[in-house]
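Now read this:
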Amino acid sequence: MPGVRLTRLILAAVLVALVSGCSLLGPWGPPRNAPTLPAEQFPALADREPDVHTSVESLAADGSDVVAIAQVNGRVDLASFWWSSDAGVTWQEGRLSDEAADATQIGESVWGFAAVSVREAGRLWLGLGAKGDDRIAWTSTDGQTWDRQLMTGLDPRRASVGEVVGTPDGFLAVGSLWNEVEQTTAPAVWRSADGITWEAQLLEGEGWLADIAVHDGTMVAVGSHGFDAMTAEGRVREPLLFVSTDAGGTWARQAVPEPAYSGEFVTSLTHVIWTPDGYVAGGQLFSGERGSYRAWTLESADAVSWSPGDVPELTSDQGVVGLAQTESGTFLVATGVQQNTTQIQLFSRSAPGVWERRVTPEVVGERWVNDTLGVGGALLLSVGVSDRIVDEVLWRTDDLAATAWTQFRIPVPEASGARTEPAALLLRDGVLTAWGNVQGATGVWTRGEDGTFGEPRIVRDEPREVFGGIHAGEPGLLMLGSRAGEAQVLFSADGETWEESGPGTFNRVAQYHSSEVSDATWAGDRWIVVGTRSTNGDVRQHALISSSARGASWTPGAGTSVLARGDSFSEDDVATDLEGLENMGRSIGAVATTPSGLLAVGHTTSVDGDRPALWRSDDKATWTLTTLPSEGAAAATAHSVRVEGDRVVVIGYARSTGSTDWAPIVWTSHDGGATFSQGTLGDQGRSGATLLTSSPDHGFVVTVGAWDGGVPTVWRSADGVAWTAEPVTVPNAADGVEAGVQTALIEGDTLHLLMYVTNRLDSVPVIVDVPLA
């Protein structure tokens, strides 16, 4: 996706230079703790932008001093620290201490929170990061040099955090805690003196807290509670409001008055701030008058009596994404959908409960807001725009009317490599090709007779188009992916000219509708694609199955039975083998051809969790849903299927009761998929990605990534029951190097593994060949 640039309203200055003496190497300094990676095998295009950008994920301020916690989004994610002493007019680069750089692990990314604690001993700045199950605290006393420690007391397998703020005593976080026994989520508040060690405090009831505002000894926390099913009163989600008047010692839940236009169907509070006039909260609710979602506010002068406010409804699917207080006044930032594109809307508060529209810079593409901050008389917005490539920028204004803006883009480190990210392998006329992202476009690399890949050829270069996979069949090639968030399939007879499936092919293009395709197969006389579609956000998910003789026009599959009728949204709608209802979701991950017909695998969803599922069809048009065995599993899903003669192997993941870990699970059939038995991959426990492939000569092969990024394992089986394992030789293996397998393909007696070998600063895709004979 090539370059997007902001068009200017009145851009008083474009800040592209750093303070004198600052380096462009990023906060990592010299390349400490970064072992050498393999040589590049997949060349980039020298005349194309690298498709690497830096996003400001969170902002914090004290006085005119501002800290920005940013992330470099390239082939790896890198935390980046920035400091301003003039309310965001100019910026300079921070860095990790040598000890922090040495301790940093591969894949540590920004968690999206920043705060400052102003105490007698001085200020303590805090930024949060994440890697897998670890949560990381970056702390600094000057906002410029940062230390790193692993956090305790916030287990991400149970704890979900909505916001972090600073207090004179340290830091507060709000969110929720999951109770595995009760299968419920409770609102929670955590305290920390140093940002490293945290202690939880559970609040009453169920739900999740999204934000907290603190002033003197009064604290206000807001959030929402989603019901498993619509209540008798017609509620699906209700707002939460908790107040503490003793600095968080005790909390009381307060009733939330809603505006007259509320449908009292789905209502949430997502943001809250303190202003000189009291507290202002904001969120989203479903308007009964308009039949769509809109932004709303809730205000109180004393944190006791609350009144709803009115935000002008400018677009559909509107919601508050930021609140900020400056010396000029109170600002509200919302997003809404117009012509299938998210817009940014800015309002200033002219009186209690009254908001006036302000103007923001005009941009082209999908937009979002990472964070909003008031500092002195200035308003800062961290904004992202996606059209062909992603462009992320800090907008700044100190004008209440918001008619004059400046912008600052954080530079990308010079050492960042271009985003060449092959994702799929395909044999074409006996030649190995690799397909994937070429600096924001879809491209293909071809391996020559000398065994090296040449310069990539751009295949598609369209805005908001994402590559998802490539498949070969008798008529030609079928490319899977998405465009503007909707499933897209493209057919080519020659690999040069492509026919698009077009909007609405796999689902109606409408509000709260979506679709994605996950797999495809050539079934002798037609293409079959499978995936998931939704007609009501995450409430109603349906299995997507569609067929096409050539790949241009598509016919949806049909279920064979009506399995249930009616839910909270309609008494007349039905659940079939493919169609879902509320708490009766369906999702398909893969499809394959057997001697007796077609098999698709995936999972169903209910209030009891995910269960592995199988769909059968003997006419390639109608489908019957059955379940796969999952004895001893609290939840399980299936994602891949391969067929060799009468032998069928299905791979998925399962989680045992009382555990948060997911491990591979195997199902095997020796009668063409008529019956299946449940098994495992030997003693393989918690794992990374699992990839299933097969061939007539070598049976079934499963490549399993290590959960900690260590050495992947290749499991082999002739019958899908008895498995043997051997480790993969990782190029440039060393401490501080991790490896992950993206995809696998068998050619003759060789297993080609497309792997990414990674240190903390970069990730290089390579082909590793594993002999099978």
Q: What stands out?
A: Residues 1-30 have pLDDT under 50 and may be disordered. The chain is about 0% helix and 60% strand. The CA atoms of residues 297 and 752 lie 56 Å apart.
